[in-house]
Amino acid sequence: MAVAEIDSLEQLLDKAGSEPLDKRELSEVKRILYGSPVETLQMSSEATKKADELEFQLSGYKFTATPEITRAPRIVRIGLVQNKIVIPTTAPVNEQMAALHKRLQDITEVAALCGVNVICYQEACSMPFAFCTREKIPWMEFAESAEDGPTIRICQEMAKKYNMVIVVPILERDSIHNDIIANTAVVIAPSGKVVGKSRKNHIPRVGDFNESTYYMEGNTGHKVFQTQYGRIAVNICYGRHHPLNWLAYGLNGAEIVFNPSATVGALSEPMWSIEARNAAIANNYFVGAINRVGTEEFPNEFTSGDGKPAHKDFGHFYGSSYIAGPNGSRTPGLSRTRDGLLVTEVDLNLNRQIKDKWCFQMTARYDMYAKELAEAIKPDFKPQIVHE
Amino acid sequence: MAVAEIDSLEQLLDKAGSEPLDKRELSEVKRILYGSPVETLQMSSEATKKADELEFQLSGYKFTATPEITRAPRIVRIGLVQNKIVIPTTAPVNEQMAALHKRLQDITEVAALCGVNVICYQEACSMPFAFCTREKIPWMEFAESAEDGPTIRICQEMAKKYNMVIVVPILERDSIHNDIIANTAVVIAPSGKVVGKSRKNHIPRVGDFNESTYYMEGNTGHKVFQTQYGRIAVNICYGRHHPLNWLAYGLNGAEIVFNPSATVGALSEPMWSIEARNAAIANNYFVGAINRVGTEEFPNEFTSGDGKPAHKDFGHFYGSSYIAGPNGSRTPGLSRTRDGLLVTEVDLNLNRQIKDKWCFQMTARYDMYAKELAEAIKPDFKPQIVHE
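Structure tokens for the assembled complex are given below, as produced in the milestone run.
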């Protein structure tokens, strides 16, 4: 006989406030919240020991796909990195950057021990998230060339050394184009070659996210990078609130989309588990959502446009980086407070299998929406409203 | 001193398997999962008593908005109804339909006691979800006129009696257009007038959802119905997987979008809490997601396209109806197994307040996406791929 259905997730959560959940209850909670369970991936004792020494969390999971006759599995290990800044924001910028480089080098060395093929760091990974301050000095000194800046050069070395694709989000200074600043992710091949760059398409104007003071909406479109470990795209931070942005990477054939972010608890935390995962479901690709951790303290006070007094801290950045799959499943998140490396093995064949199953693309009616969107942007657009 | 941040949602869930969560832990779990808490709305003892007698769950919640100087609050009470079929699918179709009408009348009477202004029933609310069978006989006899079919006429009476807007999803037979069948929601004003109809825009071909055997993709566009209780739209069932569909209702000015659905646990449950809520966040409107409950047994066996033996049951429909707000918050869900009425009071002013806060519309770059989408549908479309 079938086991009785549980009444609701909410009832179980309320129960958890007064007594422990039994095994089946807990597994139902997790099924509803995380989808069909991803397997745990055991990391070597060497990697685990090293992560412990370096004081960061190391977690491993695995998505599997159905074996096919005509296609071999396409197994890729993805690494997501989240970390605090290393030394105070009052230190000279070159020292701050060097300390962050060292941290990324250490974590990437462990990622290599874990067999990671593609790694992505957090947004603006070589600096504190200083855009809350609206100050240009000294923060603009973190900006660097996306072709051969100091962070890029270090990542090129690591890419070659570990035979990895590295996705490195930086603050870019584009000296070819009159010194404009951009929020940019650079994709580096295992050969060490810079494959290309992808700029942040949507720039926030909310809370302490004063980034529009520094850089404009990206002009690199929705590039997808064909690497030996699959087709990769990068949707930076606030772009995750824009379903069209996710869609456009999908239309260009992305199989893994990274969402390197910097976002804080009071503002966005209940949306964090929704948006990137919805994108993975709707577009049938893997999404790696990355958020930094910790509270960052700045030398001078600033206000947050919320009627509250000036202050010097920006945070709490709540980490919680995770991978969402095309099938509605996701990994648990990394810690909300600790540095971490999330290793996830995926079979990229799963994407097309889920497309074939759900038919979202076949049923998408893009022609209808292309027309409706073209209408909606006209100055004389008349919404389709029916009156009572 | 600030209280220490919790490590992660997952750690707390694991803890719940061996010991109770303390008050703060439980409130953190709920904050991360549901956003800033919606208030509980107390229902009258008369309504509660009646719901008990009629054996359905009655829950009430409330979203508030910041008071404004230049706009009065726009308070609306929304009712979502989920229910099982009432008598077996082997009964004559007119008796099955009459039993469902009676059930909806009973629940709507309680909704009126709760001050509900706008109510929405589940998808194809006057029939079992017989599309799994691919049989036309006798199920096509449930199809009715969207202008004056039996279900519509009963809802017109209720709309007048209770001064309610009623959104009633039916199986439509369109005799003006050569007897085609459609999956349609009809919006009825408190005057009893049929304001208009909105057809299901995206039709599934997955699992037991063989609806494409019966009806085609809707041709009513993305109508928004301006009622005295706000601007309402209806995104039926499988349309919730399509972010462009949600967007188009938003572009036409929707303030509340209903998603009447019929979906089963094994297929979609982990996606249920993601998609409608993501739409509410991305488009800054309220979404009412409704799913039927129970397992429906049909007279003749059918297969599910999954290699498994023929069977007669379709389900488990897992209910879990909920309201998601424009601010990332949501109500708890109704039961996974019981009939229910979810009453949610909202201030529609919250939508624009959140638009002003987050600026998703201002930063949306629709012009860029209109162009990209127009490109993507061309036969000679060349995806933007950068090679290693």
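The radius of gyration of chain B is 22 Å. Chain B has a mean pLDDT of 97. Further analysis is deferred to the final report.
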